[in-house]
Amino acid sequence: FHPAAGYRKIFESVEELTEPIPAKITGVVPSWLGGSLLRMGPGLFEVGDEPFHHMFDGLALVHKFDLKNGQVTYYRKFIRSDSYVRAMTENRVVITEFGTAAYPDPCKNIFSRFFTYFRGAEVTDNCLVNIYPIGEDFYAVTETNYITKVDPDSLETLKKVDLCKYLSVNGLTAHPHTDTDGTIYNIGNCFGKNMSLAYNIVKIPPAHKDPIEKSQVVVQLPSSERLKPSYIHSFGMTDNYFVFVEQPVKINLLKFLTLWNIRGATYMDCFESNDSMGTLFHLTTKDPAGYLSSHKFRTSAFNLFHHINAYEDEGYVIVDLCTWKGHDFVYNYLYLANLKGEWEEVKRAALRAPQPEVRRYVLPLDIHREDQGKNLVSLSYTTATAVLHSDGTIWLEPEVLFSGPRQAFEFPQINYSQYRGKKYSFAYGLGLTHFIPDRIVKLNVQTKETWVWQEEECYPSEPLFVPTPGATEEDDGVLLSVVVKPGAERPSFLLILDAMKLTELARADVNTIIPVTLHGTYKP
Question: Was 327 annotated as part of a binding site?
Answer without folding.
Answer: no
